[in-house]
Amino acid sequence: MPTLVLNGVQKSFGKNPVLQGIDLTVTSGQMVCLIGASGSGKSTLLRCMNLLEPIDDGSITLDGIDISEPGYDPQPVRQRIGMVFQSFNLFPHMTALDNALLAPRRVHGTSRAELEPKVVELFSRFGLADRMHHYPDQLSGGQQQRVAIVRALAMKPQIMLFDEITSALDPELVGEVLDVLRQLRSEGMTMVLATHEMGFARELADTVCFLDRGRILESGSPEQVFGAPEQERTRAFLSRVL
Ligand code: ADP
Ligand code: MG
């Protein structure tokens, strides 16, 4: 059962300190939501968890193993920690199914015949069975984002990171993508989301973290953070977005 622990994580871009000592524990089966203004460091934090960005100080451990050591091979970590972005980035010249088969085939060196039934099963589980053979431009934005989620799940990750995955969608398509997250959560997937969907975070998060200028200024249950925020800056942020 995966547990991800961040300890004093610091990250700067040039002279810009973007993460200034992040302590965060993500335990198995939990859903953690990162909220905060644009530029507060949510995306950078997720990218550090996935080793897409090296950290400057502190540590990130996965099941007790320090994965943030310089020189640690990021590839196996990225198989265990999947990530989905705001822009779906599907390959336009491949069907949804082929998009989802690409990475696991390359990484696991498994044959298509062996892999395909498992990936088809994922498409079915997330209501996309009738869309598998479509190309991205034949799918709505919501369907494309759901395919992007299935593609990440095809790697059999233990933890999933989601970076504002509904922000680029027309409002009427947001619900179907949130439904996928809801389903994943009920299946016990460990998840960390950067999100502007406050209603969703309030409904489903185990822990909500309010990021402010690279720090977790406040964290707790949704009832605590949304219902009785302790920090003035949290209150100001929530009054702007709620
Ligand atoms: P959020 O996702 O909360 O909007 P980000 O993590 O994207 O915040 O950005 C936090 C800060 O880091 C911003 O000031 C942003 O300009 C800066 N930043 C993010 N990525 C880079 C990068 N690759 N190079 C330089 N600065 C960056
Ligand atoms: Mg961001």
Total DSSP E strands = 10
Using the coordinates above, name the CATH class: Alpha Beta
Q: How much helical structure, as a percent, in the residues?
A: 25-40%
Overall tally of domains:
1
Order of helix and strand elements from N to C terminus: EEEHEEHEHHHEHEHEEHH
Distance between the terminal alpha carbons, to the nearest Å?
A: 35 Å
Neighbour order of strands in the largest sheet: 6-7-8-3-9-10
CATH H-level superfamily? P-loop containing nucleotide triphosphate hydrolases
Radius of gyration: 18 Å
Short note summarizing the structure:
With 242 residues, this protein is of the alpha/beta class.
Q: What do these coordinates show?
A:
This protein is an alpha/beta fold and 242 residues long. The chain has one domain (2-239): 3-Layer(aba) Sandwich (Rossmann fold), CATH 3.40.50.300. It contains nine helices and ten strands. The protein has a six-stranded mixed sheet with strand order 6-7-8-3-9-10, with helices on both faces. The chain has a four-stranded antiparallel sheet with strand order 2-1-4-5, covered by helices on one side. α3 (96-108) packs across α4. The longest helix has 16 residues, at 171-186. The two termini are 35 Å apart. The mean pLDDT is 96. Adenosine-5'-diphosphate binds at residues 13, 16, 18, 36, 38-44.
